[in-house]
Design a protein that fits this description.
- The protein has about 325 residues and is mostly helical.
- The chain has 2 domains: about 15-75, no CATH class; about 95-305, MetI-like (MetI-like fold, Orthogonal Bundle), CATH 1.10.3720.10.
- Helix content is about 80%, strand content about 0%.
- Helix 7 packs across helix 8 (about 175-210) and helix 11 packs antiparallel against helix 13 (about 280-305).
- The radius of gyration is 24 Å and the shape is globular.
């Protein structure tokens, strides 16, 4: 197993290299002069030249890439064009709300989806199964911003149970933090709960048809023990895989959710940077998100050997 882990770690290096190349080329793929686009239509030539100098666009592209990747390896993602602050500082200022929202959302999704999927598979063909499937179809079909506005209207505007928008750090109190993170995490978590519930149902339903499940029933084991100890455990690999994919998909959902609930996280920073054409900030955030996604895929792959001893590498 350790040999596989080492090979898997080494395999992420070329993938990270490809990601770095595409992130770097983000500045050069668009039509026209990036410096002129950043400066705007009414900028003076000296302003355009200043931005070209700041972005290093006057040098050959391979020199630009060499300097950029060298700085990235040292933890320097450059400076924002407009705020002139280091990109790492901007990310550090905004990362806590985003991590809190992502963690709470995936927790909501797992807590809701896995039990619902298991019960739907156990009671396949009954009204419980149909209700879970309706929830799965609706949850994955409705956009996250629609769910967010519905929750906001019902629980904030009408019931006054939660604040409409904003974010309170957990350092300022757990209860205020919980009140501000509940609705955004529900809005985002319901989307991925629907996906995980469908995969959980399909995976558990397939395992329930195996011979060893019938043998366990024939030995007189309790149905709950058969369902949890034998069926769910052996169906865990596809479930963990889709949870990992869901965490990666949270990146796009976080951007929309933070905009809806006015959360000052990385999602809002991405939107503001795109509107301002602040390329260094966009590059830094995309590079960080890509690194997180690679790490999650690595953890999911390694977890297979612990979840299913039949898997060997």
């Amino acid at each position: 197993m350790w040999g596989y882990i080492v090979r898997r770690l080494l395999a992420t290096i070329p993938v990270a290299g490809v990601v770095a190349v595409f992130v770097f080329l983000l500045l050069h793929l668009g039509p026209g002069d990036p410096a002129a686009i950043v400066a705007g239509s009414y900028a003076m030539p000296k302003d355009v030249e200043r931005i070209r100098e700041k972005l290093g666009l006057n040098e050959p592209i391979h020199i630009q890439f060499g300097k950029w990747i060298s700085n990235v390896v040292q933890g320097d993602l450059g400076d924002s064009i407009f705020s002139e602050m280091p990109v790492t500082t901007l990310i550090a200022q905004r990362i806590q709300p985003t991590l809190s929202l992502a963690a709470a959302s995936i927790l909501v999704a797992i807590i809701l989806a896995v039990p619902l999927g298991v019960v739907a598979a156990w009671r396949a063909g009954t009204w419980i199964d149909y209700l879970v499937m309706i929830f799965a179809v609706l949850g994955f079909s409705v956009p996250v911003f629609v769910i967010g506005y519905v929750l906001m209207y019902g629980f904030s505007i009408r019931a006054h149970l939660f604040p409409v928008q904003g974010f309170v750090s957990i350092r300022q109190g757990f209860i205020p933090f919980l009140r501000t993170i509940t609705l955004p995490s529900l809005a985002l978590g319901l989307i991925y709960a629907a996906l995980i519930a469908r995969i959980t149902r399909a995976s558990v339903l397939e395992v329930l048809g195996e011979d060893y499940i019938r043998t366990a029933h024939a030995k007189g084991l309790q149905p709950r023990a058969v369902l949890l100890r034998h069926a769910l455990k052996n169906a865990s690999v596809p479930i963990v895989t889709i949870i990992g994919v869901g965490i990666g998909m949270l990146i796009g959902g976080v951007v929309v959710t933070e905009s809806v609930f006015n959360i000052p996280g990385l999602g809002r920073l991405v939107v503001d940077s795109v509107l301002a054409r602040d390329y260094p900030v966009i590059q830094g955030i995309i590079l960080m998100f890509s690194g997180i996604y690679l790490l999650i895929n690595l953890i999911v792959d390694i977890s297979y050997t612990f979840l299913d001893p039949r898997i060997h590498y």
